[in-house]
Design goal:
single chain; 2 domains; 396 residues; Urease, subunit C, domain 1; binds zinc ion; five-stranded mixed β-sheet; alpha/beta
Length: 396
């Protein structure tokens, strides 16, 4: 790896929070080493040959998708019955597509054979290009429960602990628990809680003892309640599904527990949710909006995520999904950007590594033609992406 100092000049810089007065970013090795004014650089005699004039471009932190499945093929309607090595090159191709669209970090929340962990290590070592990956391995689920095909079934506390230990032994970055059923798996019901309070608590305590965060898949309200009480770190989907369907069972007292426990909500809004915005009746949209609005008003932070890999949701779709997420949750473009950069990094516990543009952090930078704080569609036209200091696209 080259350790030449690269200076990007004449930029507009949005650092994950604000537009900075400075106009230049300095990168060396994997890291951002300076944020400066180009005039100051002229005075210090910093070498000119490694300068890249970026006039007209806006720099933002690399995007973070908090919920993907590299193993899943979005073109397949049915979930896999088993995971075979044939998927490995497909996963590498998906990772490359993601980073080329500016997604420099992704959290993989489930696969069957830990191939995504091997991919994570290949990317980290520079052997393949792709986002920095945080991986959960096999999700812990009930017998024939949501995503049981990945091999994480557990009928009782002892088995659940065994599945957890198996993930720890493989070197996962976090633990995924299926607190409720889901739509992808026939026979499992989104409304039903899959584990008792005792098992949820035991899993969270064990994961935390290993310094591993816990992401809990939760559609139904009872599962949300148990996950919140157990103190998981992120609630995925948080769909408040009740007898009357999606978002029909929002409960403010449970939302208060989510807030009090410091839990982040990852609502997995993908670009396909545009359907909801286009729907004539709009009942589900009204309910979902009301739930998001209430959670946001309480102070519960929402983090961007797509559940990429499920049918019709492509791995590199986050830049387009953010615009839909902003419309559904009624977020400003800047709030939506934070949910995929600075806020997401805090939610995932990696804000000391990425998520903002400041010296000392890894150089995960997207250069855009246009300011996404004005119009999120600018995200779909990356002019350049740096991931850990490495240029991903050809300039020009
Ligand atoms: Zn998922």
């Amino acid at each position: 790896m080259s350790h030449e100092l690269i200076t990007l000049t004449h930029l507009q810089i949005w650092d994950g929070h604000n537009i900075l007065p400075e106009d230049s970013l300095q990168i060396q090795g994997n890291n951002i080493v300076g944020v400066a004014f180009v005039e100051e650089l002229d005075n210090t005699g910093a070498p000119r040959k490694s300068r890249i004039n970026c006039a007209g471009l806006t720099a933002i932190p690399g995007l973070i998708d908090a919920h993907v499945h590299l193993e899943l093929n979005p073109d397949e309607k049915d979930p896999p019955t088993q995971t075979t090595a044939a998927v490995v090159p497909l996963m590498a191709a998906r990772a490359a597509q993601m980073v080329q669209q500016g997604i420099t970090t992704a959290r993989d929340l489930g696969g069957g054979a830990w191939y995504e962990l091997a991919l994570r290590d290949d990317i980290a070592a520079g052997r393949l290009i792709g986002p920095r990956l945080l991986c959960s391995g096999q999700p812990i689920t009930s017998p024939q429960g949501h995503c049981h095909f990945w091999g994480g079934e557990a009928a009782n506390l002892e088995q659940a602990q065994q599945v957890l230990q198996r993930q720890v032994d493989r070197g996962v970055d976090l633990i995924k628990v299926m607190a409720t059923g889901g739509r992808l798996t026939r026979g499992s019901q989104p409304t039903d809680a899959q584990f008792s309070q005792e098992i949820m608590q035991s899993l969270v305590d064990t994961a935390h003892a290993h310094d591993l965060p816990v992401a809990a898949h939760c559609h139904g309200t009872e599962g949300i309640h148990r996950a919140a009480l157990a103190g998981v770190d992120t609630i995925e989907h948080c769909s408040w599904v009740g007898e009357q369907g999606w978002a029909s069972d929002y409960q403010a007292d449970i939302a208060q527990i989510i807030l009090d426990q410091g839990i982040w909500v990852s609502p997995t809004v993908n670009k396909g949710w545009q359907r909801m915005l286009d729907s004539q009746t709009g009942n589900v949209l009204k309910r979902v909006r009301a739930a998001y609005k209430d959670m946001l008003a309480l102070g519960i932070p929402l983090v961007a995520s797509t559940d990429a890999g499920i049918p019709g949701v492509y791995h590199a779709d986050l830049p387009q999904a953010l615009a839909v997420f902003a419309k559904i949750a009624e977020l400003s473009p800047t709030a939506a950007l934070k949910s995929a950069t600075s806020d997401a990094a805090r939610a995932l516990g990696i804000d000391h590594i990425t998520g903002t543009l400041q010296p000392g952090l890894e150089a995960d930078i997207v250069l855009l033609d246009g300011d996404p704080n004005d119009d999120l569609s600018a995200l779909t036209r990356p002019a350049q992406v740096y991931c850990r200091g490495t240029e991903v696209l050809e300039f020009g």
